[in-house]
Amino acid sequence: MKGTSLWIMAWRNLGRNRRRTMLTLASIAFGVFLAVLSMASQDRNWQEMIDLGARMGGGHVTVQHPEYLDTPSLSRTVTGTGALLAAVAREPAVTRAVDRIAGQLMVSTARESYGASFVAFDPEAEDSTTLSYLEAVSEGEMFAADNPTGMVLGAQLARNLGAEIGDRVVYTATDRGGEIVAGLGRVTGLMRTGAPSIDVGVVLLPIAAARDVLGFAPDEATEVALFINDHRESEALAARLQEQLGDEAAAIPWFEGRPDLYAFIAMKVGGGVVMVVIIALMVAAGIFNTVFVSVMERLREFGIMMAVGFSPAKLFRLVVYESVWLGVIGLVVAALVTIGPYLYLSRIGIDMGAMLGDTSTEISGVAMATQIRFGIYPENVVRIVVLAFVAVVLAGIYPAWRAGRVEPVESIRLG
After folding, report:
1. What's the DSSP call for residue 68?
2. Averaged over 52-81, what is the pLDDT?
3. 90 lies in a domain?
4. pLDDT value at position 414?
């Protein structure tokens, strides 16, 4: 009998017990549905967290002094930032590149003094796509680039200082030479990011004024932040840049700059992979049970088929082909079942705000979103489909082998 005829026989065999076949297809579809939505909730959520972390400082790749990551200090700077920005702009993966000064300072009013981190940047060169703080200004406004005394405070920090819009705030820092220097700022805006550590401990300054106070050259900064569309390319981009930079500077991908965030995401992604594997095993177990029971019910039939000329190899292939058909049809049904909820959740998402209330969770200073939207990387869809299909086919291997081991005389007599 030709191979094509075995495929037709396998197809027809699925219709002999339609209830069992439908239950099997439902289990495949439901398993794939769970796996896709589980992975989709992670892919988009972690991507947004990584992108938010990049926009909160450093970018997806940060160019900085080779020793800055281990011992951050305003004495460890990158010079020639103008030429560096022009060079990285030629990288196809880079969408934006900006230079900044970041460090620690002390902010004081007549009432209180607090330590804080500061980010000095050019408001004309940046927007919310490179610095998320700009969209978090809830009171007042962002300072202009030509305002040497402009300053934006975290809302909780301003409350602790007793500062309001228009108030003067003195800030002191240690310059690159180790000397204590001071500057005067006037509060133009307050920001609320949802991350408690940011709202209580971050100050924004104009980079030109910061350079004057700290004694930096016009083309000197502590970091050059690079932004790309796909954070997964950050490691390759950093490696390419490092070859060009040599020992003068270090190109640091986001996961080295934010190890806490990376460890958290890696743990969650690992858990998601385990969940997908468990779902695949559960689907495979269900398929195995279905196919095995089907084989045991047809032992007499298989014995007759072997008595009239069927070889064990053909019986083996016949049962395997049935599993293949189940896998193909099951994946088609899974696609039809999954596409609607996936599109809805990718647009609307799930609002966790009501469950969390006013509390928020942050990892490495990055607040987790309360509105969870779904989105899955294409390669993960392929992995899930392949894993589900392989699991279904493998589940039919032993029943197929058992069918090929049928003794014709014995099976006919028992039947």
Report:
1. T
2. 88
3. no
4. 46
Question: CA 48 to CA 29: how far, in whole Å?
Answer: 28
Regarding whether 34 and 109 lie in a shared domain, the answer is: no
* Rounded Cα–Cα distance for residues 288 and 399 (Å): 7
Based on the domain organization, do 295 and 399 belong to the same domain? yes
* Dist CA 302 CA 382 (whole Å): 36
Contacts 24+ apart (CB under 8 A), 207-210: 207/99, 207/100, 207/101, 207/120, 207/121, 207/122, 208/122, 208/145, 208/146, 208/148, 209/120, 209/148, 209/149, 209/150, 209/183, 210/101, 210/118, 210/120, 210/183
Q: Which residue has the tokens 């958290």?
A: 264
d(CA 170, CA 182): 7
Shared domain for 153 and 294, answered yes or no, is: no
Task: Output 228 or 46, whichever has higher pLDDT.
Answer: 228
Q: Which domain holds residue 131?
A: 97-221
In angstroms, the Cα distances linking 255 to 48, 258, 264 are: 14, 5, 11
Q: What pTM does this model have?
A: 0.78
Q: How many CB atoms lie within 10 A of CB 15?
A: 8
CA dihedral of 214, 65, 365, 234, whole degrees rounded to 10: 140
How far apart CA 66 and CA 310 sit, in angstroms, is: 72
Of 93-102, 117-126, 277-286, the least confident: 277-286
